[in-house]
Amino acid sequence: MSSVIVYLVAYAGLAICVGIVACKVRSYLQKPVHVRWELYPVAHEAKRASYGGSYLEDVDWWKNKQQPSFIAGMKGLLTELLFLHMTLETNTRLWYRTYPFHAGLYCLLGAFFFTVLAAIAQLSGIEPGMFITLIGNVVQVLTAVGFIGVIGGGIGLLHRRLTQEDLRRYSTPEHYFNLIAFILFGVLGLLCWMLNPSFFALSRDFTANMISFNFLPIESASFVVFALVASILSAYVPATHMGHFFMKYFLYHDIRWGDQPTQDNPNTQKKIDKVLGFPVSWKAPHIEGDGIKSWAEVATTNPARPKE
């Protein structure tokens, strides 16, 4: 196979991945305002989070300017992202399977980040030295640990879906296909890592060639296969339910922890005004929607009033 095709597939995979992520984020931002969860504790309530409180405890809370803690909020988000804290607390048996899988992906993302840095350094003319050697060693370790975590965690999750009745009932062919795809990706990557003395050097050179549009031949057949599979997977994953990784920021900051008073948020006020204008067709006695009446009318009407 021509090396040019490998580079083109890699460009296409990256472009599709970025495009799907951008479309999903844009779609979310254009959706109507969500219903507040009112679930506590909220991480950015630094002083009250320890006991599950909120600013609603204060008398005349709407008169006070809320000052959420950015550091506390990021700490809560990173705790969940990096350690899957809620899964550990609520479903420990699942955590022992899903955490290695996610940790493996984090390691691979970290290896990719350092590889890009090394490629930029190479293109900038920085001579190989102690720093580049250190990066190379880190990438080698992160890559091996990442592939092993994806394989082991993927097999564990697949086994759980196949053997646990309540989970199997809600599993679709897509769930099984995705896990198998990641397991195969991990196996191919680990084999490539084992067959090539320096997986880091191959990855760095390939990345540098992509950045500089210099389509030099790829000497390793195993790396060609790995690069193709990785590119296809990067384009596929954001379009599936496993693409939730890039939406977690909105899930936590905008939905689960979105407690900013409406009076302090003109954007939210506009969204609420728009939603209140939607027609209601829900005919339940406490709503009495007729497809013409708006939510604003429903909210300001007493359905228990005596009929005239």
Mean pLDDT: 90
Count of distinct strands: 0
Any idea of the CATH class of the domain at 3-30 and 89-237?
A: Mainly Alpha
Instruction: Tell me the β content.
Output: under 5%
Characterize the structure shown.
This protein has twelve helices and no strands. With 308 residues, it is mostly helical. The protein has a domain at 3-30 and 89-237: Up-down Bundle (Fumarate Reductase Cytochrome B subunit), CATH 1.20.950. 64% of the residues lie in helices and 0% in strands. It has helices at residues 3-30, 70-83, 85-90, 92-123, 130-163, 165-168, 173-195, 199-212, 221-236, 248-256, 266-276, 295-299.
Can you tag this structure with a few keywords?
single chain; mainly alpha; Fumarate Reductase Cytochrome B subunit
What is the topological layout?
Blueprint: H1 3-30, H2 70-83, H3 85-90, H4 92-123, H5 130-163, H6 165-168, H7 173-195, H8 199-212, H9 221-236, H10 248-256, H11 266-276, H12 295-299
Structure in a nutshell:
This protein is mainly alpha-helical and 308 residues long.
